[in-house]
Fold this protein.
Amino acid sequence: MSDDTADPGVRQAIEPLPVPEAGALARRVLDTVGTVVVGKAEPLALVLAGILAGGHVLLEDFPGLGKTLAARSFAQALGLSFRRLQFTPDLLPADVTGSFLYDQSSGDFDFRPGPVFTNLLLADEINRTPPKTQAALLEAMQEKQVSVEGTTYPLEPPFHVLATANPIEYEGTYPLPEAQLDRFLLRVSFGYPSADDEWGVLRNRMARRQEETHLDAVVDATTLRAMQSTVETVAVEDSIGRYIVDLVTATRSHPQVLVGASPRGSLALLLCARAHALLADRDYVVPEDVKAFAAPALAHRISLKPEVWLRRVEPSTVVGEVLAATPAPASGARPSYQESTVDEPVAARPAAPDPVYRYTEPPRGQR
């Protein structure tokens, strides 16, 4: 492993790229993946934004819609090491994390890393394995490390999980617990392609003359980490931050919701909105960035009341109602967290009243 992973709490600093350069690279990645996964520009952008935000993505959709192909294509275009793990009812936690095996030559037990030790892990049909094995991924997804028999092994960054699940076939499956669902930054569905897009898939297959696809790498792991660092430089003014909080809080008081989104949902919406702004070559977030990710970032974090299930109400419908009922801001004020200094933290500064909401682009020198 590289030196920057010797301590999971200490990561080597990666210099961010300029926003236009990072955005151009991200769009090149999307264009490259789009040559193989045809007609899915919007879902692919959601997945890439989730990766740029440093999170994990759950691809929940019907079989045969390109979920596995998309994961493999992103790994190739991003220059990441890739492993695919097929989840089955007899899969054990050690099959995910790795285990100690006896080495006859040395007379000692050596740790053999499992498939989780990679940059991009495809957890295929994750809901087909028991909760004990599903839980083997929790520490890796949240802490970027694996603990086996009292020893902790850090995962080399970047580390991302793209998991697939079938939303309609429930026989022989184990629903993901809320704690595991909450670890996924986004839940994305591809949906069926249009007739023209499906013909494009057939045409590409005939032109390839083989089943396998291979994409040239647009970036590498180090460049991806620099792009992720760039996301952290995207400014979020106070009114946008409060808008995110208002949206998430509204899910908790909705009459059809049993359990609303947690503060982790607010963080997910914040990170994804920043990544979406980067894809648009902006170093600041606008309300439209937040709206684009409200359903993918919040719907899987909402539990509906039992009586609502009979009416076939979906969590995404609730998120849509919350979006329609929550007024969006529009202001070009400088974010308060950027005004603080080392000697004078934000908490010590007097609170300034929120600006009147009118969206104007922040002055170039204040971004």
Remarks:
- Residues 12-92+118-227 form a domain with the Rossmann fold fold (CATH 3.40.50.300).
- The chain has two domains: 12-92+118-227, 234-337.
